[in-house]
Design brief:
Oligomer: single chain
Number of strands: 10
Order of helices and strands: EHEHEHEHEHEEHEEE
Radius of gyration: 17 Å
Distance between the termini: 42 Å
Strand content: 15-25%
Bound molecules: 5-O-phosphono-beta-D-ribofuranosylamine
């Protein structure tokens, strides 16, 4: 059983999707700790409600990034975490932290990486005129929104989309994709080789991809 540590900064709907997945008896992971860098993150109440240990490590209370990250790291190690899941965690991590959790930290990003890294992702997608967008779960590397891609979900971009309507459609896909990706790891199907993700097992021979719904 994989022990998850989830890092949040905000509303925590992706955290909720992981909480819900972990409640299923056959799900190969449990959330052992939720950490937020913001005391006012709404996601903390989700952890509380689900009876999951949660803690605030307020980055503002630290003089530097590394001191903040050392406490994050200590909390994760204290809870014996196997896999860190960033879920709307809005702090850039230093190479020190990334190396400490190399191949053991995932992030979810609301675009089909490597397109549209950083912030204002849906504005970027609409400005580029792409017809398909989506979300990506990837292993964390020092460069922001980069790293071996584990799973992606595609959604259509509609002609009358605004950043908000597109964000909502992508978010729905995120809530399916993150538990799906964690399950793959929990079932021991994932290997990172030469900075690419390979899948073990005959039932997972093709890369996980959620196709867009048909648009009439
Ligand atoms: C999600 O869109 C995620 O992809 C991005 O930040 C957002 C977090 O939303 N990294 P929530 O806090 O999980 O609701």
């Amino acid at each position: 059983m994989l022990k998850l540590g989830v890092l949040i900064s905000g509303r925590g709907t992706n955290l909720q999707s992981l909480i819900d997945a972990c409640a299923e008896p056959d799900f190969p992971a449990r959330i052992a700790l939720v950490l937020s860098n913001r005391p006012d993150a709404a996601g903390l109440a989700r952890a509380q409600k689900a009876g999951i240990a949660h803690q605030v490590v307020d980055h503002k209370a630290y003089a530097g990034r590394e001191a903040f990250e050392r406490d994050l790291d200590a909390a994760l190690r204290g809870a014996d975490i196997d896999l860190v899941c960033s879920a709307g965690f809005m702090r850039v991590l230093t190479p020190w932290f990334v190396k400490a959790w190399w191949d053991r930290q995932l992030n979810i990003h609301p675009s089909l990486l490597p397109a549209f890294r950083g912030l204002h992702v849906h504005e970027q997608a609409l400005a580029a005129g792409v017809k398909i967008s989506g979300c990506t779960v990837h292993f964390v590397r020092p460069e922001m929104d980069a790293g071996p891609i584990l799973a992606q979900a595609a959604v259509p971009v509609l002609a009358d989309d605004t950043p908000d309507t597109l964000a909502a459609r992508v978010l729905e896909a995120e809530h399916k994709l993150y538990p799906f990706a964690v399950r793959l790891i929990g079932e021991g199907k994932v290997q990172v080789k030469d900075e690419k993700v390979l899948f073990r097992g005959t039932d997972c021979a093709s890369p996980p991809l959620f196709a867009p719904a048909n648009v009439s």
